[in-house]
Design goal:
236 residues; Rossmann fold; six-stranded mixed sheet; four-stranded antiparallel sheet; 10 strands
């Protein structure tokens, strides 16, 4: 599904990623963990094509997409990306946000897809279907950003701190939705997250990053049990 080979990336003259390699198979889920400012978000942006890379390769389903523009990578593998900023249309209603994001040119078909997603996956948003997106709480807007991506049925989901600023009840809603999608749709997930408890319930493996380099890989269950590793790499 996804393979990153010896990737370097930089902003201007400042190198952020150094010789980063990882692989994620179809249906697997991993977390990129580390202290603030070590390059986790930069890695996700490099994978999606939002920033250029200085060296190395990015492969999707075995195809080298290193130089492929971001909007073309989804033609190789359906990619969903949620950054730290909400990606919604604030003046449209919740339902309209999903209709315009649906993979169809027919508004009627888009409405059917949107209604089905709200009914099956997002009961919190279903109750707000007619509300303007700008009136939602921060947590609800994060859920809407996720729904806008899921309406396109991506195979690979990249998420950058999805729980940031979300109240606990909506964190549970988000977690339930993602676990369900992993099970039913065999969704492949790459997660950057500060909350270890959230990541532990969602992903199988953890990659630990220090100063732009992945220095250790271990099962998530092992990381949860090892407080020394948590303190050394995560500052917990």
């Amino acid at each position: 599904m996804l393979e990153v080979r010896r990737l370097d990336a930089q902003y201007g003259l400042t190198k952020i990623l150094h010789d980063v390699s990882l692989s994620v198979g179809r249906g697997e889920s991993i977390a990129i963990l580390g202290r603030n400012g070590v390059g986790k978000s930069t890695l996700l942006k490099a994978i999606t094509g939002l920033i250029p890379v200085a060296a190395g390769q990015i492969l999707l389903n075995g195809r080298d997409v290193t130089g492929t523009p971001a909007h073309r990578r989804g033609e190789v593998v359906g990619i969903g990306y949620i950054g730290q900023d909400e990606n919604i249309f604030p003046t449209l209603s919740v339902r309209e946000n999903l209709i315009v994001s649906a993979p169809t040119n027919s508004r009627r078909d888009g409405a059917a897809i949107a209604d089905r997603l709200l009914e099956e996956e997002f009961p919190v948003l279903r109750m707000k279907a007619g509300a303007r997106a700008s009136t939602l709480s921060g947590g609800q807007q994060r859920l809407l950003a996720l729904a806008r991506i899921l309406v396109r049925r991506p195979q690979l989901m990249l998420m950058d701190e999805p729980t940031q600023g979300i109240q606990p009840s909506l964190v549970e809603e988000l977690l339930r939705t993602l676990i369900d999608l992993r099970t039913r749709q065999n969704l492949t997930l790459v997660l950057v997250e500060q909350r270890l408890d959230f990541a532990a319930r969602l992903v199988d493996r953890a990659h630990l990053m220090v100063k732009g380099t992945l220095v250790r890989e271990l099962p998530m269950a092992e990381l949860v049990e090892n407080v020394d590793v948590q303190h050394e790499y995560l500052g917990i």
